[in-house]
């Protein structure tokens, strides 16, 4: 296995900071639509009080995401990354637009028909997530670490910015007639417009940056067959001789990559099993009634997203980054002590302790995720890094799916189960 020269691109290559900004925006685009749906759950609880929307919509979303990601991971070496990522962005845009049109067409009414429609859109968000997140992480795994970290920071920023905007719109429209719905519509308009802008960013700006072309050309020479369309978009065309030369390169199989990085895979799975067993279902339905009333779950979600976003920047400081594989595993396993902590806090303590706990959950989720994902691709060739990126995203989505399923256990023994 050849050592990767990740992070060793010539210093004079232009476009690094613009590339980081593009990656941040594309990370934002990966989850902004879903976070919009997640953050307006108070609206859906008003329309569909008996359907557990926070839990059920998340379960639908993750079911489609996991199945789609499993298929895409199996065929990743044969799928054109450019077409995959653009398909994900376009699907996010169309699904966000459909969600907006559905609310306008139904005049904000409840009913099983509308809920089924929203569930179908949640499923399409899951497919789009698998297309875009897996494609982007695989693509960025063979570029400089700052690109990957910017993308992950953008994913976290999606949650925080949407939550903060939700607080503002809730405050602005709360006293207006039908104010809750007006805030939701504004939300969906912003989300849809942003997804459209990101289609343009990925299609016309990102592939033309010199540093991006450098890494993709390097991956191509190492045997990657997924970057040819992106190189063509950047003005670089690989002739048949180059492709034949690339095919001579051998790479580890997905199975070999998985077993070499099984501890990282377990880390990511367990990180999100725990996190999604608490957020969002437990937060919306099981934290009790407090002084903040209907604001309480939105505040908790906002605090979680803010801490998640901040913690993803901590590993930028090299001596604060946890690199030990054993240390990462210990840290991940120790987080499961949060389950009884949340249970007893919800049952016996006030909102201050809950805010403290949700802050710690957000900090550890973001920090450990970045530590694992930025360490994993080191030492591999471009095609292997792309495959490993897809495998790890699949582990993340599997962890999220299991966490969402386990989240229903909080309802055991309750009348509303």
Automatic annotation (TrEMBL):
Cellular component GO terms held in the UniProt record: plasma membrane
InterPro entries, per the entry: Eqnu_transpt
Q: Name one GO molecular function term.
A: nucleoside transmembrane transporter activity
Which locations, inside or outside the cell, does it occupy?
A: Membrane
Q: Which residues cross the membrane?
A: 17-34, 54-74, 86-106, 112-132, 152-173, 185-206, 264-283, 295-315, 327-346, 352-376, 388-411
Question: Could you confirm whether the keyword Transmembrane appears in this record?
Answer: yes
Primary localisation category: membrane
Domain of life the protein comes from: Eukaryota
One protein family per Pfam: Nucleoside_tran
Q: What keywords tag this UniProt record? A: Membrane, Transmembrane, Transmembrane helix, Transport
Q: How does it sit in the membrane?
A: Multi-pass membrane protein
PANTHER family referenced in this protein's UniProt entry, alphabetically: EQUILIBRATIVE NUCLEOSIDE TRANSPORTER, EQUILIBRATIVE NUCLEOTIDE TRANSPORTER 3-LIKE ISOFORM X1
UniProt similarity note: Belongs to the SLC29A/ENT transporter (TC 2.A.57) family.
Mind telling me what this protein is named? Equilibrative nucleotide transporter 3-like
**Organism in which the protein naturally occurs:** Populus davidiana
């Amino acid at each position: 296995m050849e050592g990767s020269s990740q992070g060793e691109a010539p210093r004079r290559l232009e476009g690094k900071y613009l590339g980081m900004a593009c990656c941040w925006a594309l990370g934002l685009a990966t989850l902004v639509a879903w976070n919009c749906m997640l953050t307006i759950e108070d609206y859906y609880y008003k329309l569909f009080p008996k359907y557990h929307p926070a839990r059920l919509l998340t379960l639908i979303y993750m079911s489609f995401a996991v199945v789609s990601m499993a298929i895409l991971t199996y065929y990743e070496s044969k799928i054109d990354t450019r077409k995959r990522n653009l398909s994900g962005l376009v699907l996010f845009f169309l699904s966000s637009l459909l969600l907006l049109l559905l609310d306008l067409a139904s005049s904000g009414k409840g009913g099983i028909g509308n809920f089924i429609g929203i569930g179908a859109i949640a499923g399409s968000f899951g497919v789009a997530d698998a297309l875009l997140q897996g494609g982007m992480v695989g693509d960025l795994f063979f570029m400089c670490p700052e690109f990957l970290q910017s993308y992950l920071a953008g994913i976290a920023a999606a949650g925080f910015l949407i939550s903060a905007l939700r607080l503002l719109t809730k405050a602005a429209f709360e006293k207006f007639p039908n104010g809750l719905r007006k805030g939701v519509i504004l939300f969906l308009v912003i989300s849809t417009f942003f997804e459209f802008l990101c289609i343009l960013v990925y299609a016309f700006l990102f592939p033309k940056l010199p540093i991006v072309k450098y890494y993709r050309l390097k991956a191509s020479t190492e045997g990657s067959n997924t970057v040819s369309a992106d190189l063509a978009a950047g003005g670089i065309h690989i002739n048949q001789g180059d492709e034949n030369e690339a095919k001579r390169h051998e790479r580890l199989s997905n199975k070999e990559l998985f077993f070499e990085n099984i501890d990282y895979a377990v880390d990511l799975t367990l990180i999100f099993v725990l996190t999604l067993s608490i957020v969002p279902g437990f937060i919306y339905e099981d934290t009790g009634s407090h002084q903040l009333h209907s604001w309480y779950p939105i505040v908790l979600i906002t605090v979680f997203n803010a801490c998640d976003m901040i913690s993803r920047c901590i590993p930028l400081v090299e001596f604060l980054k946890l690199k030990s594989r054993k240390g990462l595993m210990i840290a991940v396993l120790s987080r499961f002590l949060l389950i009884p902590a949340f249970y007893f806090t919800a049952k016996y303590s006030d909102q201050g302790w809950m805010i403290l706990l949700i802050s710690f959950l957000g900090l550890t989720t973001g920090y450990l995720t970045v530590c694992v994902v930025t360490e994993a691709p080191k030492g591999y060739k471009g095609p292997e890094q792309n495959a490993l990126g897809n495998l790890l995203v699949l582990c993340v989505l599997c962890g999220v799916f299991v966490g969402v399923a386990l989240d229903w256990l909080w309802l055991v023994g309750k009348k509303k189960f």
